[in-house]
Design brief:
Elements lengths: L11 E7 L2 E8 L1 E3 L4 E2 L13 H13 L15
Antiparallel strand pairs: 1-2, 3-4
Length: 79
Amino acid sequence: MQSAIEAETPGCNLGIMQKGEFLHKAGYGLANLELNVLLDGNQVHRMASVSKQFTAMAVLMLVEQGKIDLDQDIHIYLP
């Protein structure tokens, strides 16, 4: 990931969790271009509606794997 982030470019934080614990947490690139502040994996990002496209992709991947059916009632999968 670090090789994909060029100097002086905006970056991202990456976190991989399992059972509520971080397996990996890191920041890549800059949090603030003007002040040259590096991301360290601890910054909070306001995602808002940006995450919807990733959720949709994850759901469609589960459909493709036969793990969920879009024609079923949502309550089968969510309490």
